[in-house]
Amino acid sequence: MHLHKRAFPALAVACAALWGAPAAGAAEVIVIDGERAEVRHDPVSPGRSETSLGRARGRGPSAQAAASPRGQRAVMRALRKARRAGKLSAARQRRYRRAYLRARSVRRRLTGTRGRQLGYVISIVDRLARRRRLTSSRLRSTFLQLSRNTQFWRRHGVPGADVKFRGSELLYRYFTGHGLQIHPLANFVKANKLHGACTKGTGSCSRRRLRRLLDELSKLAVRRHRRFVAWEYQFHFGGGSPPWMSGMAQGTAIQALARGSQLLHRPRYLATARKALRGFSTRPPAGVKARGPLGGRHYLQYSFDRRLFIFNAFTQSLIGLFDYAEIAGSSYARRLFELAEPELTREIPKSDLGDWTRYSWRGRESTPDYHELLREVAQSACNRKFGRVYCTLARRYRGYQTDPPEIELTGPATASEDSGTRIRFSLSKLSTVEVKVYKGSSLAFRRIATFRRGNRSFGWTPKSPGTYTIRLGAKEQRTGKGLKGRDSGTVLVE
């Protein structure tokens, strides 16, 4: 990890504008070291675009910090119960109790955004305890997250990058209104990147960091539904209430643990991954096994939404199962893969819109980042010989990104002064289109918009008579690239 040029004293309340949001795919991490915060460049930490939780269908409610002693009593009761059951040592019980009381004390002294973030995290602890879901296996992750939020919000403002703390490899992500959250998907993607750096012989290989990260993540596995372990999310999202799990994160987890076990010669990582497999044979809301839109087995992105079928998430879940089965020689994991892969083979062609991709079954178009993610996982499935359809789609989706668009001006030939008209054109693929209308050397009209393929148009009202030149330019849906398709013509305004 290399020190970035920027460093911030923790005594100053830094805001998002100061820290700045990293570009897509960037590997910037804010490292908290005591009372200091530094932005560092870390080539193995994933960018936000590749570890986004995706598009959920609704908005979750915002929980409020408990103002009454009810939440506190419930938390203390949960700690005593775990202690009596022999699941919690006396020392750790005292540690968790102090962490909780300190969080509430710090919250009372904070105002504005920082107070609301910490208040939300406290409210989730209270909520879990009141609903008797603050189980012994959930204590470690819950109180770790609470302690880190207390430490962070006491001194700092809204971060513009993922956050980690000195002595730990875990990544925390800020979700608006929900404080810092342990992000299982981002952490296991980071583990895969550390593994790849070592197996590919790049200079960023660090077996020590990979071991520390997988050790930390293994300790955060929560026993869920008494059947399996999972890495949970503890905030409201897309209409779901915490704690919930993600099939994509679970699949990436077992993949990363299997790879780490192989590289580091640590069989216990495989044992942890094996305990996570039944999440794929358990129905929601506990697990992610669902009936897909075409009648087969589907693994959900969100355990709380059994009708949202996300192409890239389903594909990555199966890749994780496949890789684990190969490394561990697990017939059970292979069976979980084989039960669901035929459904994916039938589903994934429905992501093809002819010039771009769809994010989910009958859902909206993919953003450029999600289009690229789907292309990548389709290529990964192709590389693993899942079937010809994945190879075909991976090639086609690359073409949608790189093939230059064709654009042709089709009208009008004439128009009337102060009367609305349409600048018509045909377009070969989903593109960003720019139109410029000149009268002589003067720019009279300019617009930029994104259009699907087909016959499209811009609205325009000429302000004076004369001959105008129309220039059209189009570019594919990638950032930082110039216009590739062009056409022009003239229109006579009377």
Describe the protein's architecture and organization.
Mean pLDDT is 90; it is low at 1-26. The protein has a five-stranded mixed β-sheet with strand order 12-18-17-14-15, with no helix packed on it. A four-stranded mixed β-sheet has the order 1-3-2-4, with no helix packed on it. Strands 11-13-16 form a three-stranded antiparallel β-sheet, with no helix packed on it. The chain has helices spanning 16-19, 69-84, 90-109, 112-130, 136-155, 184-199, 207-219, 247-264, 267-276, 311-328, 331-347, 368-383, 388-402, and strands spanning 2-9, 28-33, 36-41, 162-165, 172-174, 180-182, 222-224, 228-230, 289-291, 297-299, 407-411, 414-415, 421-427, 431-439, 442-451, 454-460, 466-475, 485-493. Helix 2 (69-84) runs antiparallel to helix 3 (90-109), helix 2 packs across helix 4 and helix 10 (311-328) packs antiparallel against helix 11. Helices cover 41% and strands 20% of the residues. The longest helix has 20 residues, at 90-109. It folds into three domains: 1-42 and 63-176, no CATH class; 184-402, Glycosyltransferase (Alpha/alpha barrel), CATH 1.50.10; 407-493, Immunoglobulin-like (Sandwich). A hairpin with a 3-residue loop joins strand 7 and strand 8. The protein is globular and about 90 Å long. The chain is built from 13 helices and 18 strands.
Helical region count? 13
Strand % is 15-25%
- What's the end-to-end separation, in Å? 66 Å
CATH 2nd-level architecture of the largest domain: Alpha/alpha barrel
Query: Main sheet: which strands, in order across?
Result: 12-18-17-14-15
Instruction: Determine Rg (CA atoms, Å).
Output: 26 Å
